[in-house]
Design a protein that fits this description.
The complex is a heterotrimer. By secondary structure, chain B is of the alpha/beta class. Chain B contains 11 helices and 13 strands. Chain C has one domain. Chain C starts with a helix and ends in a 5-residue tail after the last helix. Classes of the chains: A mainly alpha, B alpha/beta, C mainly alpha. At the A-C interface, helix 2 and helix 8 of A face helix 2 and helix 8 of C.
Chain lengths: ~270, ~350, ~260
């Protein structure tokens, strides 16, 4: 464990340094993470205003808080690893990673976390600014805030494992771009980013509950909004743990198969 | 040819401004605000000219400024100062007529489109260079024959081996029958057989078309086979311009003397004849200052039981290595370098 | 004229290249259908809770979605792949080959890769747009058709110039290919009429990232709500951006070749 700690420390340092070097790219990703929630915030706020102040049990202010929270949670959990892997394998950089005496996922995790802490310095103020601009009011319970920390961490890990798994598809197909985008569309639909899941027909809500995506995004957001009972919180954590383990196992499986294939076909 | 040379360079210089950064987070933070810069003189006032039909080897260690010079000559880089004309054009104006008459091959980079058959990239170049159908067909035919491309043309680039790809790269670069060829490491990474094939082809192309070739390579075999004349640059400065054979005279004030002795050295100290490079059984290789060669061989023959004796110039690789291993600034003090000898590139 | 022939060659190569990856057709189709699903699903969810959005009727928004897919298809088929290739070339140094060709480098760079399967977006756009028009019962006379065509064309040119300028930044900065990711995420905002956004965001989407001119403006031409000022503004902006992007491109090339350094 301590060995991992020092390795991660090293990774963080280089990850931060690299992010600074690519400062423009850093801003670009960041902006992308702000636009989408902002767009849906505006759409739903408009609808709520037209409907006399509320849609379902979401008032105008609820939409504002929902999407600002969504922006933060998405920032905390998103990865760009699928594009990264596509690039690594096409450019033959993957072999270098394999030579290191450590699983490549660790540097990716460190890279990701390093990026996020760095960009929080921009995203935090942006969120505050949007809250001020749209007159958001938010009174969280203490226990939801306490629960939010582990929930967000679980969401991050499960999303990371699943998207890393998806990234491994680059071993089998040369153009994963389309798959990635298809994945993003599905996530958009079932994670509560398009609209709060409560506003969807019951069928969609049921499907969303079965799929992992809700538990990556909508669940932490709803927790922050104080819309969950302690019982629902426990169910959610259970679902997260289930998908986390499933993600871990599929990662192991597909990674091994991918390495075998990579070894067979070469760089 | 008595006419003006195909390539003419005067006092050409290129200075890059590079950003520097120290390791570490603090430095990274600092670089976010202000980046430290430093000037690098990649090419530092070189002059030479190349006549029509010549194949000139352009030598120098990594970072000597070879590629930068080639890039300036092919119109990709503006010089910081100095003049250059190729075929009467100033390259960096990138006149269409100039671009149509020259070509650039970079051994480390591909212009072939990765996913489609080679012949389709050729088609693309035909469209870009507006090569008439008949001429195109003929050129492809000739190149296919010379480079043995027939089995490769229908394959997608990604399925070719490195050597096959290079052959196709070269063919793609020659479809428009350029008059001037800039070849930057065309044989890099290839096996010996393939290097020889490419070499033969370049020589053949030069002979058939009379095209002018400026070639860089790390493989001295390429240079020895193709170039009568070499230009050596180091740290952006021109060190030597002249016959390949003159290079050894200039930079290696030594000869190697190989003697075979009847009864071996027999414990006699041999270093009084010269520096002993190799000693095995009865064979001894000595390095002897050029001026003393006659005296030393005389003494060897007189004092020892010599079965066989040969005097040679050191291998060209060793000469080159010796030139480049000089510490920075020291090169100009070598005997016979441009610094203290009169500049006599066109001595033959 | 010769650049049309060149484009035809690239198109042919695009078809050939993509034939190698036939599965991509199905993946793209799937992806486009999914995205259409999101667009229509989004509309459906919104319109289960309201009957108009900022004054736009459902069918007018459907027309907007059609335009969004049409222009999006153009971006994905030609502009984005070409620009990606260009930025990759800058990083790998293979742009040198393009620059040594005796043709206009900007044109070469802009048409150099065609991802033919991405045209499914266009194929999807046509029935969506037709449905919307039929349901709107819009009487598309020659004047309206012409206005629509003109706004579509100037919208496309605006987007092209804009993306070219973004990509040209590759001469100065590494890893700018991510700019396209950000653009595409901004581009999504065009699925909704810009009039619903707060003023500052509307300004951003109109002038900073000219999404509005490629989506909202042509769609409002179809639904007959376009003003003359908007129409001519769109044409003028297209012309201006073409010139500016051309200038910026040359600046980039000069920087790349060290002329301005």
């Amino acid at each position: 464990m301590t060995a991992f700690f020092s390795i991660y420390k090293g990774y963080f340092r280089t990850a931060l340094a690299i992010q600074f070097q690519y400062r423009i790219a850093m801003l670009i990703w960041l902006l992308g993470g702000i636009i989408e929630p902002l767009m849906y915030l505006v759409v739903w706020r408009t609808v709520a205003q037209q409907q006399g102040g509320a849609v379902g049990d979401y008032a105008v202010n609820d939409f504002v808080v929902y999407y600002i929270a969504m922006m933060l949670v998405n920032h905390g959990t998103f990865t760009w690893i699928m594009w990264e892997y596509d690039h690594r394998i096409r450019m033959g950089q993957f072999s270098a990673l394999l030579l290191k005496p450590i699983h490549p996922i660790h540097s990716d995790i460190a890279d990701n976390i390093g990026y996020k802490f760095l960009t929080l310095t921009v995203l935090g103020p942006t969120a505050a600014l949007l809250a001020w601009f749209f007159n958001a009011t938010w009174q969280p319970d203490l226990w939801t805030l306490a629960a939010f920390v582990p929930v967000l961490f679980l969401a991050f890990l499960m999303r990371f494992f699943w998207e890393w798994t998806l990234a491994m598809l680059a071993f089998w197909t040369t153009r994963v771009d389309a798959i990635n985008q298809a994945y993003f569309v599905i996530v958009l639909f079932f994670s509560g980013r398009l609209a709060p899941l409560d506003l969807f027909p019951q069928v969609v809500q049921s499907v969303a509950a079965i799929l992992p995506f809700r538990w990556m995004l909508a669940f932490p957001v709803e927790l922050l909004l104080g819309r969950l009972t302690p019982g629902e919180l426990l169910i959610g954590i259970g679902a997260q743990l289930f998908w986390l383990i499933a993600g871990y196992l599929s990662l192991q499986l597909i990674y091994r198969a991918g390495i075998r294939r990579y070894a067979a076909f070469g760089a | 040819m008595a006419e003006s040379p195909v390539i003419q360079i005067d006092e050409l210089s290129k200075i890059y401004t590079v950003t520097e950064r120290e390791a570490g987070l603090v430095a990274a933070m600092r670089s976010l605000v202000k980046r430290k810069t430093r000037d690098v003189r990649a090419v530092d006032g070189i002059s030479f000219s190349v006549s029509e039909g010549e194949i000139v080897g352009f030598l120098g260690p990594n970072g000597a400024g070879k590629t930068t010079t080639l890039k300036m000559l092919s119109g990709l880089l503006y010089p910081t100062s100095g003049r250059a004309t190729v075929l009467g054009f100033r390259p960096w104006e990138r006149n269409r007529d100039y671009l149509r008459r020259m070509t650039l091959v970079m051994g480390q980079r591909n212009q072939l489109v990765w996913d489609i058959p080679v012949i389709d990239t050729f088609e693309l170049n035909r469209a870009v260079y507006r090569i008439p159908e008949a001429e195109y067909t003929r050129t492809v035919g000739v190149l296919t024959e010379l480079l043995e491309l027939a089995p490769l043309l229908r394959k997608p680039t990604r399925n070719l081996s490195l050597g096959e790809r290079m052959k196709c790269e070269i063919a793609a670069a020659l479809l428009h029958r350029p008059w001037v060829l800039f070849l930057d490491e065309p044989t890099i990474g290839l096996d010996v057989t393939m290097q020889r094939r490419i070499r033969q082809f370049i020589a053949e192309y030069n002979q058939r078309t009379g095209a002018t070739v400026l070639l860089t390579s790390h493989y001295m075999a390429d240079v020895e086979a193709l170039c009568k004349r070499v230009i050596v640059i180091h740290h952006g400065k021109l060190l030597y311009d002249g016959d390949l054979s003159g290079l050894a005279d200039r930079f290696a004030p030594f000869k190697t003397v190989e003697v075979e002795l009847q009864n071996g050295a027999g414990g006699r100290p041999l270093d009084r004849y010269g520096e002993v490079l190799v000693q095995s059984e009865g064979r001894i290789t000595l390095r002897v200052p050029k001026v003393e060669t006659a005296t030393v061989t005389g003494r060897l023959l007189a004092e020892l039981d010599v079965v066989d004796l040969t005097v040679q110039d050191p291998p060209i690789e060793d000469v080159i290595e010796q030139v480049f291993s000089q510490p920075d600034g020291a090169t100009s003090h070598l005997p016979g370098t441009v610094a203290d000898a009169p500049f006599d590139s066109q001595k033959q | 004229m010769r650049y049309f022939r060149l484009f035809a060659t690239y198109l042919r190569l695009g078809v050939l290249g993509e034939l190698e990856y036939r599965a991509n057709f199905w993946i793209n189709l799937l992806q486009s259908l999914l995205e259409l699903g999101v667009a229509l699903g989004g509309l459906a969810v919104v319109f289960t809770h309201t009957d108009n959005l900022g004054g736009w009727q459902p069918d007018e928004l459907l027309a907007l979605v059609g335009v969004y897919f049409l222009i999006g298809g153009l971006i994905r088929t030609l502009i984005r792949p070409s620009m990606s290739k260009f930025m990759e070339d800058v990083r790998q140094g293979t742009l040198d080959f393009t620059l040594t060709k005796p043709a206009d480098a900007q044109v070469l760079v802009s048409i150099q890769r065609v991802e033919i399967w991405r045209m499914v977006d266009v194929l999807i756009a046509i029935p969506v747009l037709s449905t919307a028009l039929l349901r709107l019962g819009a009487q598309l006379g020659p004047a309206e058709t012409l206005t629509f065509a003109v706004t579509l064309l100037s919208g496309s040119l605006i987007i092209y110039s804009f993306l070219l300028m973004l990509s040209t930044c590759a001469f100065w900065f590494v890893r700018v290919e991510n700019i396209q990711v950000i653009f595409m995420s901004m581009w999504q905002a065009g699925r909704w009429p810009v009039s619903i956004y707060p003023a500052w965001l509307r300004a951003v989407l109109t002038f900073l990232v000219p999404v509005a001119f490629a989506t909202t403006v042509p769609a409002s031409a179809v639904s007959g709500r376009i003003t003359t000022a908007t129409l001519f503004g769109s044409i003028a902006l297209a012309a201006a951006l073409l010139l500016v992007s051309r200038w910026f491109w040359r600046l980039g090339i000069r920087f790349y070749s060290g002329a301005s350094a």
